[in-house]
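Long-time lurker, first post. I've been practising inverse folding by hand and with some scripts of my own, and I keep getting stuck on stretches where the structure tokens seem ambiguous. Below is the full token string for one chain I'm working on. Before anyone asks, I'm not after the true native sequence, just a reasonable design that respects the backbone. If someone could post their per-position residues I'd love to compare against what I wrote down in my notebook.
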């Protein structure tokens, strides 16, 4: 049986966007199953205490993400006024749950992240969702109905509560049993751990 790795990620996080390909490569290279947990306090309806933005930390984050974007040859656009103002993650986060049920989560993640952080598009605009469903070849009405359902909202809350239970505080976070690997820069540590566990696929060794 393949090892399950819980992947806590957020559409609000530029690091989750930049790490996406490397995360999927883990499943390609190792005998593991990735359990994608779209994680957002705001989408889960949790009260959020405003925190002071430290200018030096913010300027470094922008420098750092731009380096990753250049390295991975990915476009990166920050929403105007970010992080004080940001796109509401509710629909996108609930959509990930629905996309998983529909069997198109990988495509959903790739396309939504690309539109949000690569093209700077607002995920809550009607044309955004219409185009996304067309690209995924899924029914728009069915998708929107499931996204707005009480069941989907409760599942998003459940993912958030589970993450808090295991002390998830940032994304991307990778969870093996109760061990956490936090951040895009810890992916190599995770890969090293999986190699030591003998989980590397034969094709990946060549």
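-- Answer (accepted) --
I ran through it position by position. Result:
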């Amino acid at each position: 049986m393949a090892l399950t790795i819980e992947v806590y990620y957020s559409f609000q996080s530029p690091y989750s966007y930049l790490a996406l390909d490397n995360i999927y490569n883990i499943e390609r290279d190792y005998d593991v199953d990735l359990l994608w947990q779209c994680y957002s306090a705001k989408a889960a309806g949790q009260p959020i205490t405003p925190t002071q933005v430290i200018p030096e930390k913010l300027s470094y984050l922008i420098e750092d993400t731009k380096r990753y974007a250049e390295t991975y040859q990915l476009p990166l656009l920050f929403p105007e006024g970010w992080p004080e103002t940001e796109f509401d993650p509710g629909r996108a986060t609930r959509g990930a749950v629905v996309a998983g049920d529909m069997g198109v989560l990988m495509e959903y993640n790739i396309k939504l992240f690309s539109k949000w952080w690569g093209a700077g598009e607002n995920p809550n605009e009607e044309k955004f969702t219409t185009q996304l469903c067309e690209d995924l070849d899924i029914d728009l009405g069915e998708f929107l109905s499931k996204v707005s359902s009480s069941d989907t909202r409760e599942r998003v809350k459940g993912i958030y509560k589970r993450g808090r239970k295991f002390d998830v505080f940032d994304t991307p976070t990778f969870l093996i049993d109760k061990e956490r690997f936090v951040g895009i820069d810890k992916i190599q540590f995770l890969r090293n751990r999986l190699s030591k566990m003998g989980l590397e696929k034969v094709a990946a060794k060549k």
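A couple of notes from the structure itself: The chain has one domain: 3-205. The domain at 3-205 is CATH 3.40.30.10 (Glutaredoxin). Happy to go over any region you disagree with.
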